[in-house]
Amino acid sequence: MIVSDNLSVTHEDAQAIDDCWNRIGIHGDKSCPLLSEHIHCRNCAVYSAAATRLLDRYALQQEDREQVATVVETEVKTRSLLMFRLGEEWLGLATRSLVEVAPLQTIHSLPHQRSRALLGVANVRGALVACLSLVELLGLDATNNVSASARVMPRMLIIAARGGPVVVPVDEVDGIHAIDERILEAASQSGAQASAKYTRGVLQFKGRSLRWLDEEQLLSAVTRSLT
Prior knowledge:
Blueprint: H1 8-16, H2 20-23, H3 35-38, H4 45-61, E1 78-86, E2 89-94, E3 98-103, E4 107-108, E5 118-124, E6 127-132, H5 134-138, E7 155-161, E8 164-170, E9 172-180, H6 181-189, E10 199-205, E11 208-213, H7 215-226
Parallel strand pairs: 2-11
Antiparallel strand pairs: 1-2, 1-9, 3-7, 4-5, 5-6, 7-8, 10-11
InterPro entries: CheW (IPR039315), CheW-like_dom_sf (IPR036061), CheW-lke_dom (IPR002545)
Pfam family, one: CheW
Subcellular location: Cytoplasm
């Protein structure tokens, strides 16, 4: 499910950073002389240094880059939200903040984490992308007692943060739904979101209690976690 073409930022990063792991490393022809010593590229200092440079770039770019994926607000009757689940809680995020819903990828931890929310980096089409925990950012209970079925597959959301795309793992994606703005307005005025972080309101959808996330506050928190 591709929402926009903002992954060009990821490809630019891949060109700027020498992705030797894709050429001569574990994902390449395995001719790197250091591979026998480190077994896997993620154990190599070159890989760690590339990940560190990527995170430094987020800090530098946030000062001179406007938020990716903006829209001109017009008088519309509906707003598109991506519905997804973390643990036992369902959440909704405006699709204008979304780049893509991707299959779950391996997350490689970093030797020096910058924040509790930073899980590490993931390889997205050959480029390293920072991976964050929404459970940590939103202060959710990490326990997942929902019975899994064959159709429920964990996914990764690629989100357009200010300094470049980031990925966040989620337990389930329901899809994109158009919600009547009158329902959203009523939810934002209900006061039910007062105790929930980065939340604009709570509404009922498909028999579920759904937290509608404030994308501006959430993206700001994402940026802070990377700098």
